Structures are given as structure tokens and as C-alpha cells.
Amino acid sequence: MNRQRVASLMSSVTGLFLTIAIAFAIVVLMILILSDEPGRAIYYFFIGPFTRAYYLGNMLNQSIGLMFTGLGIAVAFKSSTFNLGGEGQAYSGAIVATVIMLALPNMPGFVGGTAAIVAAILMGAFIAGLSGFFGMKWGTDQLISSFLLSAAVILIINYLVTGPLDDPTNSMLTTPRIGQQYQLLRIFKPSKLDISIVFAAILAIGTYFFMQRSHWGYEMRMCGLNREFAKYAGINVEKYLMVPMAISGGFHGLAGAIVVMGTHYRGLKGVTAGLGWNGIAVALIAKNNPIAVIPAALFFAYLDAGARAAMLHSDVTFELASIARAMIFFLVTAQALYGLFNSKKKVTK
Amino acid sequence: MSNTSFPIPMLHSTIRIMAPFLLAAIGGLFTELAGMLNIALEGLMLIGAFFSVVLAAATGSLFLGVVLGILASIVAAYVFGFISLNLRANIFITGLATNLFAEGLTVVLAFQIFGNKGVIRFANLSKLPDLSIPSLQRIPVIGDIFIGHNVLIYISWLMVILAAIVIYKTPFGLRIRGTGSNPGAIEAIGLSPRRYGMYAILISGFTCGLAGAVLSLQMGAFVPGITSGRGWIALVAIYLGNKNPLGIFIACLVFGFAESFSNYAQGIMDVPADFILAFPYIITVVAMIAYSIVQHYRLKGSEG
Which of A29, A285, A317 should one mutate to test binding to chain B, selecting the residue with the greatest count of B CBs within 10 A? Predict the structure, then answer.
């Protein structure tokens, strides 16, 4: 029994390794083709994030938002609901939190900050929950509706940030700055790494126990495994079309709030851009395991940091990271890639 | 245009605007019938848009640009299909991968080639030739609305007719439909559902490539994310159109009209640009929900 588990773990680790190796190979190939100084670009892509404490700190900081969104997606996927609206949910969380903090300039940090975070979570949960609700009530495809809703929400928030909420004293497309008392403690200056990374790690562990040990977690996992079976086991499967979506949206809203409070201190236009798609990548790499979300988020933060360092120090552009990410998306669920190693194991058993 | 009242130009531009939706949706119909939810339409279209306009400018030939743009999109579709079908990956995730890859690739290439991540204009590019038939154009209203568009618009209509014939009147179409509805039967007659799935994906690559070419060549420019959700909207159009070519044509007409109307509204009412951009998504999601409500109760009615 145990040996089987080890074998399946081995095959998923080797498959993952292969996926990442292929993704990196493609990036190297692209750099070789496109760059005039490929050696330099490749060096900074891979080593760059570790060359300065500042880069390293920012990389760790970047992973915080990814942990939250990765957890949100992991919960949804584990329950077989598809949330493709993470981008809009995170953005809406960021803006709602910003608005609340701006509206309460004299509130003690803890009280106003909590209010902002709760509101952000509710906002994300509401938007994702809508898709869940339509799916539950009428069978509307959640995958498509969550994406479309999010796309509309992003544009409407863009309007708010550049229009009514715009900071007139600043030429950037952004809201005014939030009060000092709301800014999370930075723990690795001069980088932007803040204290919320600890909170993210604790939340990951909490989510693991929620999914594994709680009643809701159990029922959600059952629905994820087999909705039909779960139904016969007496589980209210309809409810679990909506609940995991709302939880997932809540995580995204939280991510948005934390990114504003910890990193930017403002509701910039596109402040959370990329968090949603990256969150999906994180959850996939982590195989929807909340604990594994932590290293997976660090990995994607590394990928972004590497691309950013390569852009700063050579002639390639940041979007190389999105190509690497896309390659990982392509291959991470490719069963054949994993089976490659599995088949051998089966013979020996 | 002789007619000055606004509905006519608005309907005229509806016909122009709906073409990319129509092409993407018709290709997506093949994959849908073959039993796959193809969310890669957006990315395939983006690849077609980029390569067709860049290569049309590079070769100086619109025709070559269109052909090569379609080819690029077919290659991307093949990769998408190969990984989904042969390597047995989750097709939602590979579809997302295709979209993200297209987004990344077009920006990286634009930056490395043109040193620019913004709008890339091609001044030397000639305009797509318009089809002008003066005798037909003189027909009031109908002539104003339907005649005088560029040739790709009419090709998109031909595609719909062609698709209808292929799907309903050929053995190939029957097999594509069989792949979705009863793959076991396809296997039983000695054919491979996987292969027909791949054909469907390649067809969607073809039409999405053409859809992208329509977008970028009409503009004579490449804008990052030029497809702005059209692939997704096309996907919804397939459902709203009840998975048949005529229905899809009508659904795309509605979406085209909605966009044309919102463009027009912007001109007279000073609506913020972001709202105009959000409008198609909102209309689409509302339409989708309305459709699922109708389906839901129809199903319930037939059960009771």
C-alpha cells in the first residue's frame, strides 16, 4: 500500500520535473533566438533573483498574493468547480479594500484594516459566488461565466481607478495613498516583503486542515471526486457548486487587499494583474494540495522575478515569464508525461 | 453612404463587427460537436491576428499575410490538440495555456521585432479590398447594409455555409458529430475519435486564424490583446446558437449589433471607454444566463 503511494508520488514528482524542465528549455530557446546577449539574459533569468537581497525579498513578497490565489483555486479545483475569474475577483478585492481604507483615514489600523480585508473577501466571494449561484440554479457554465464576469469587472474597476477614484495630485493612474496605519510591516527592507507572508503560510496550513478534517471540506472533496456518487451518499451537491466558488473568490479578494496593504499602498490600475492566472498555475503545480501551494507560489514568484531581472539587465522582455508559465500550463496535466514513469512501476508491482 | 439616419450605418458596421465572432464560433462549433469545450479560440485568434498583419506587412501581400496568419494559428491549434489528445492533458487547462501562450508570444515578438509593446501600425499596408457592386448597392437599406464590405466579411459567410454543408451533408461531418455524441460507435467502425477530435481542433485553428486576420487587417495594426474576449464571446455564441450554424449566425449578429450600438452610443452620449469595452462581456454573460434559465425550465417541462 505504502509502496504504491511512494510510486505515485515519485511519478508525479518526475512528471512535474519534466514539465518544468521543458518550460525552461523553451524559454532558453526563445532567449537564444531573440536576444543579442543570450548568455547575460539566461544568467539573469535563472540566477538574477538571488543576486541581490532586494530582488530576493521582492520575490518572496510576490509569492504572498500567489499563495492566496493559489489556495483559492486549489479549493475550487479540489471540489471540481472551475473559477476562471480570479483576475477580476482579486482586483475587486483590492479596490474595495482601498476605498474603505481611504474612507476611514482616522480609524485605528487594526479596526479599519480588518474592515477592509473582510469587505474585500466578501466582494471576491460575491463575484465568484454569482457564477456559482447561476451554475447551481440553472446549470450555467461556471468556467465561462466566471471568466466573462471577471473581464467586465476588471474594465469597470479600471474606469473607477482612472475616473472617480483617481488621485488628482498624482499623474499615475491610481487612487490616493492609504493611511500609514494600514500599511503592513515590512520585514526585509529595503525590499517590499511584508509580514503577511507569515499569515499566508498559516492560512495554507489552515486550509489544508479545513479540506481534510472539516465536514464541509470532506463534502467538498467528495463532490470533487465524483458528484454523482456524492449525491447518492446524501451530500447536497448543488450547494457545493456555489460554496467552493464563493470560498475561492474570498481568497482572491483577500489577495487583492493584501497586495494593496503590503506592497503598493494604493489602488493602482491593474494592481493585481496576473495574480488570477498565476493562481491557477500555482494550484495546478501543487496538485490542489494547500500545503504544496506554498512552494508552488514561491516557484512562480521566482519565475516572475527571473524574468524581471533578465529584463532589467539584458535586452529581453518581462513577458518571457508568461511563455514559461504557458508551457507549464500546457504540460502540467498531461497524463502521458506522468505515465511515462508510471508504466515501468506497474510492471514491477 | 446616402442614408443619413443612424440605424443604417450602425447595421452596416454590425455586419463588419460580427465577422470575427462568426468565424471563431463556426470553428468552435466543430470542436463543440466533437465533444470538446474549446476555450483556446481566443488565443488562436490572437495568433492569427498578429502573424497575419505582421507577415502581410513584411511580404507586402495581404493574401500571403492571411494565409500565413491562418497557418500560424493552425500550428498553434495542432500543439494544443496534440497535448490535449495525445498527451491526454486536461483540455481546459491546455486551452488556458494556449491563450496565455498567445498573449505572451505576441508581446515578446512584438517587443523584440518592433521594440514596442503598444499599438504597432503598418503604414505601408494596403487596405483590404472592398466588394463593391454598384447595382446592388443602390437597393435601399439592404444594399447599404450588406454590400460594400471587405472581401473577408463575405468569406466568413461562405464559411458558415460551407460548415453547414460539411457538418450535415458529409460523412466527415457525421464522424465529427459522432466523436462527440458517441465515440464508441466511431471506434466500432474502425475510426479513431482522437483523430477526428484533432481534425475539429485544426478546423477551429483555421477559422480562428482567419478571424484574427479580419481583426488586425481591418485595422492595419496590431494591438496587444486585440481579440479582447471575442473568442470567449464566440464560445457563448455557439451555445446561444443551439450548436447549429444558422443559430450561431443569429447569435453573432446580436453580439455584433450590441458592439456596434455601444460604439455608436459612445459617440453621442460620452460613455467612458471602459464601459464600452465592458459592454460585450456583460451582454454575453446576461445572454448566457438567460439561455441557461430557458434551457433549465424547458428540460424540467419535458420531464414533468
Answer: A317
Q: Is B48 within the bounds of a domain?
A: yes
Chain A residues in contact with B93 by the CB 8 A cut-off are 280, 284, 329-330, 332-333
Q: Give the nearest chain A residue to B291 (CA atoms).
A: A140
Around Cβ A78, how many Cβ atoms within 10 Å?
23
Question: Is residue A45, in this structure, part of any structural domain at all?
Answer: no
List pLDDT tens digits, range A167-209.
888 878 889 999 888 998 888 888 999 999 999 999 999 999 9
Q: How many domains is chain B partitioned into structurally?
A: 1
CA distance B242 to chain A (A): 14
The minimal CB distance from A159 to the residues B86, B236, B274 is found for B274
* B2 located within any domain: no
A155 and A65 co-located in one domain: yes
Q: Is B119 on the interface with A (CB under 8 A)?
A: no
| pTM recorded for the entire structure | 0.90
What 3-state DSSP class applies to B246?
A: helix
Angle formed by the axes of helices A320-332 and A275-285, to 10°?
A: 40
Tell me the residue range of the domain where A98 lies: 53-305
Contact A264, A307 (CB under 8 A): no
Report how far residue B91's alpha carbon sits from residue B37's, in angstroms, rounded to the nearest whole number. Answer: 8
- The parent domain of residue B126 ranges over 7-303
pLDDT digits (tens, 9 = 90+) for B57-85: 999 999 999 999 999 999 999 999 999 99
Answer yes or no: do A331 and B86 touch at CB < 8 A: no
CATH number for position B229:
1.10.3470
Sign of CA dihedral B32, B36, B37, B43: negative
- Do A348 and A279 lie in one domain? The reply is no
